[in-house]
Design a protein that fits this description.
The structure is a homodimer of 191-residue chains. The first copy, chain A, is of the alpha/beta class. Chain A has helices at residues 2-11, 32-45, 62-72, 131-142, 161-166; strands at 13-14, 20-21, 29-30, 53-57, 76-79, 92-98, 103-109, 119-127, 146-156, 172-180, 187-188. The first copy, chain A, starts with a helix and ends with a strand.
Chain lengths: 191, 191
């Protein structure tokens, strides 16, 4: 999506080791108008998958998931990383590596909000190694739900996540596709 | 706001000890249409405070803050509870008690996204003791920014947060005001 690519070119920073800093418009400060455009575009791309629910992981998945779910008229569920006191004792739980924390974190969903009738559209900010998204896939599958699509804002193809997700046989869409971050550059697929 | 009050009456659960379970539409599963209505109403109430930025805390503040900031045309900053690798070494940091975790947690903002020219509208899901919101106030004040308003979805008047916030001399608005949760009831101010 040209608006997102342009914004990454303008404000994104390559910190080295494949780390892309986008915290001025995506994951610390959020530009709601850009996020709304992204959500509308993801909603358009997944308009025909008959999803019943949008699934994401706290924290930085919440904004894109919410603004994708709004035009689709669907509820959002965000997997928690800490079990709140309001959640029942029996939950769906899996582990996924956290880039931020440098260790495994829990992803937790209450069985109250995901069940075998659900057709799940997974939305997240990044598709990198695919590990967080695969955690969400496992949670949905444990609930007996069906994955019908996976959408992200930014994909880093050099981390291989797409290969991992393609085994699922569902559409995988990313709005900005980065093929390389070598030598302080940010190279996009369409450039 | 009658739509939010009606939804709490329908789907909110009083778990005792002042704990209100709203995780089917606010803070685990989110109803984007209801959240959009709430955001529009908060935006309307704060249309005249000349805010330059909406400030909230991860995690459950993100959805209401985003949908308040969108109609206002303002950026959102959400305070992080864990410092990501993309954040500079020097940050604004304070401590606030977490109901979910039962201990103090850090609230962290990068100086890149909050400065002395900012007029800050704080938005969060709950106004209870006011402790998290006062943490956000301290962060904004440390940055030299000015608080111009505080808005929340749900206020529990019996936890006294409003008294704490009124010393700031700014408008404090809540869309659903709960005055008592005694005896398994949920009593609203307007009922």
């Amino acid at each position: 999506m040209k608006e997102l690519v342009a914004r990454i070119r303008q404000d994104g920073k390559n910190l080295g080791n494949g780390i892309l800093k986008v915290d001025s418009f995506i994951n610390h400060q959020v530009d709601p108008e850009l996020m709304d455009l992204c959500g509308q575009e993801l909603a358009r791309r997944f308009a025909n998958v008959d999803a019943t629910k949008v699934l994401t992981a706290e924290i930085s998945g919440i904004a894109p998931a919410l603004l994708t779910a709004l035009p689709l008229g669907l509820p959002v569920v965000y997997a928690r990383k800490t079990k709140p006191v309001t959640m029942p004792d029996q939950v769906y739980l899996t582990l996924a590596p956290s880039h931020t924390k440098g260790r495994m974190v829990e992803l937790i969903i209450s069985p109250e909000h995901l069940d075998e009738g659900d057709r799940v559209l997974i939305i997240d900010d990044f598709l990198a190694s695919g590990a967080t998204i695969m955690g969400l896939v496992r949670l949905a599958q444990t609930a007996g739900a069906r994955i019908v699509g996976i959408g992200t804002l930014i994909e880093k193809t050099f981390e291989g996540g797409r290969d991992l997700l393609e085994q699922l046989g569902v559409p995988v869409e990313s709005l900005a596709v980065i093929t390389s971050m070598d030598e302080d550059q940010i190279t996009f697929a369409d450039s």
